[in-house]
Structures are given as structure tokens and as C-alpha cells.
Amino acid sequence: MNDMNITSAQYQADLDGNNCGINIVIDGITISVPLEVGNRHYDEIQRQVAAGTLTIQDAD
Amino acid sequence: MALSKIKANSITDDSITTDQIADTSVHGRRNLVINGAMTISQRGTSFTGFGAGVNYSLDRFAHFHSSDGAFTVSQETSVVPTDFTHALKVQTTTADASIAAGQRLIVFTRCEGNTVSHLNWGTSAAKTVTLSFYVRSSITGTHGGAFGNGSDNRNYPFTYTINSADTWERKTITVAGDTSGTWATGTGRSLQVVWGLGVGSTYSGAAGAWASGDINSATGATTGVLGTLNATWYLTGVQLEVGQATPFEHEPFGVTLQKAMRYYEKSYDYGTAPGASNNGTGIDHRTVGRDTPNAYGFFSTKFTTTKRAGPAVTVYAYTGTANKISNGDSGAELATVDAIQLSTTGFLTRNQQGSTITDQAIMFHYVADSEL
């Protein structure tokens, strides 16, 4: 059972091309999430990725 | 005055009681739960249409739902116990009279490790705590809940009894601290208190003892709130403290709001829900920008209150559209953005329009979520 209904996820990249966050969509709203263990959104992303129910797309 | 001169009848009520001691200001800040009086609700005052999963409503309180039922959550201001002005209300709008083993509706609050580290849980020096709360429900009988840790692998189910329908009652539950398990002591999620409003057998356990596993209620507790159309359940005056129960510790609105903003903050006026359209009140972020190429940041935003951890951030235009900023003169939507450099103290709004935004005023609102 997922804590959040995340419908998409995509890495954010900084100007050097390094991943600096993840944009996720929940209920149609994009939320910017830090790459930080302990952030409940980030932790849930990692849990869903590990469960194979979510894939994080590469940054544009 | 020499101590020998103090006579028993010079002390109010001829005795010193726990309540009298607790009512003195020098014993303040004993409640480990934030917003126990349910006075703060930054996200709004009425919540419906929840999908399955975790949803926060009143500050620091959330619910988890995975059932065939439906319900509303609201900040109640009329049906409240003496000495209180607000309560959290849950009302069932679609009953789930046959809750499957893995289904549940729970209300919970979670404590940061920094707040409860002195309890020494997970060690032989674990302290006893008492949970007290005011509750009212249309469903009488034995209700359940549970204490748990941040890893969802330690639990202590408890029961309480609603003796009279639709009547406020105060309940106290004293628990010897857990001497096992892992209990976070830093900025992470540690102790959580759960009230079960309809919990299947998978998430129910024997009351009155610590055990391993993810358990949210006591075996045998009623599932009647979720199972009964229009059933109601109210909660306020939640207090968790070391030792025995004392009277609820009321605190100023601003103090509770400041505490809550460590976990959730919005730029909108307090009474305006995030995403409201054409909102020109409250603090906005209005600035005259330089030419800002795509993928470059505009200007940084500093939070009012330092967050527990780097938060998740959503930016809103004045139209109420998420992930947009507005033209600072007209209020019309100007560009698509996201938020980067998410830290405990602020963030940077970044142009994601795909083209340069020319030199002009911009404005926006934001929500920062660092809940546990």
C-alpha cells in the first residue's frame, strides 16, 4: 500500500547536469522533492522504486 | 519564613495535587504533541475526496486510508469540550461495513526524534509516558489505537471506551516505554500515536504490550466509525507527557503555529488554503527579475521557520495554478517553474518555461512540506 499516489517522477538537473532533486506529480500537482533521506516524499519515492511500481525519468 | 511556620491550611485546598502542580507555568512545555488542541489548520478547514494513502489535514495530524469507505475530515469549532475551541472531526460518508484484513482508516500524529529523545525508548532507561485526549463519537464501545515507532516495526496497541454516544470523554493511557526496537533521536520520524477508526485484522494486535510489527489498533476494537454511514468521531486535547496525566497544557495560538511551521509552511495568508485563485493577500514573493534563461533560477525564498529537513515544495501562481509564477503587474500566469536548492531554510524558484523570461516583475506563493 503506497503512502502517496505518485503518477510520475523525473530528476531535476542543475546547470552542470547533476541530479539535484526530483519532480513528482501527485493529484496533478508537481512537487519538487530534495534528494534527502528523511523527507517523507523522497522516502516514499525510494520505496516505490524499490517495489518496482515507480520509475524516475532522467532529467531533460 | 522558616519552613516550620508553613501550615497545611495555608496551602490552597490544604493539599498539593498533581493537577495543581501541573497548572503552574513553571511546568510548561510538557506536551510532546504539537497542535493537540487542534487550533492550527494551515491547509484549510474541510477536507474531502481523499485517495488511498497518507493525507495531512489539521497541522501535525494526518490519516491513512485504504478501504472501500469514504469520509470527511474537518476542523470543528462548534462541537468541542469545555475549555477548547477546536477539534478534529471525522465523518463517514460511505460506510465500509466489511473491512478486509488489510484495510484500515487511522488518524495519527508523529513526533520528531529530537522531541522525544529524552524518553530513552529503545533502551533499558525507557521512560513511562501518558497519552491523554478528549474524544467523542456516535459509536459506543471499545475503540482502539496504538503507539508505534518511525520504522513501523514496533507497536503498543491500546483500547479506550466510548461510554456514551455523542458525549465528550477524556481518556488517559499510560505506557511503560519500549526498551527494545529502534527509536529515532534526530530529525527523523520517531514516536507516533495512532487512533483506529476501522482497522482490519492484519493491522490489529493484542492490547497492552509491546510487540514487533506494523500495528495500528487493538484486536477486538470496533470498526464502527468507518463501518457506519454518518458516524462521527472527534478528537482534541491530545497530550503526551512523561509520567502521569496532567491537565491539558493550553498554549498561545502563535506558539503552536510556530511549532507547526517547522513541518509545514505556506506563504498564503493563514486563512487562505494553498492553491486559492487570484489571491492578493498575505505574503507573496514579488520581485523585479532580470532576464532569466531557461533552467536558471529567479530569486531565492527564505522560509519563515527553519524546517525539520529539506522540504518538498510546490509553487503557485496567483491564479492558483501549481508550478507557475505570475506576472507581478497583472497577476496573470507568466511561466512554468519548479523549485530547486531545497534546504531547511529556503529554496530557489527556477525557470522551466523552455525560453528566457525577460526582465519583469514576478510573484508567486509556495507551500513547503517537511512533515514526518
Structural class of chain B: mainly beta
What is the total tally of β strands of chain A? 4
Mean pLDDT of chain B equals: 91
Low-confidence stretches of chain B: none
Shape assignment of chain B: globular
SSE order of chain A in H/E notation?
Answer: EEEHE
How would a crystallographer describe the biggest sheet of chain B?
7 strands, antiparallel
Tell me about this structure:
The complex is a heterodimer of chains A (60) and B (372). Chain A is an alpha+beta fold. Chain A is built from one helix and four strands. Chain A has a four-stranded mixed β-sheet, with helices on one face. The radius of gyration of chain A is 11 Å and the shape is globular. In chain A, 30% of the residues are buried. The mean pLDDT of chain A is 94. By secondary structure, chain B is mainly beta. Helix content of chain B is 6%, strand content 37%. In chain B, the strands form five sheets. Chain B has a seven-stranded antiparallel β-sheet with strand order 2-3-6-11-8-9-13. In chain B, strands 1-4-5-15-7-10 form a six-stranded antiparallel β-sheet. Chain B has a six-stranded antiparallel β-sheet with strand order 17-23-20-21-22-18, with no helix packed on it. The longest helix of chain B is centred in the C-terminal third of the chain and has 8 residues. The mean pLDDT of chain B is 91. The chains are: A alpha+beta (60), B mainly beta (372). Chains A and B meet through strand 2, strand 3 and helix 1 of A and strand 19 and strand 21 of B.
Give a brief rundown of this model.
The complex is a heterodimer of chains A (60) and B (372). Chain A has 60 residues and is of the alpha+beta class. Helices cover 18% and strands 38% of the residues of chain A.
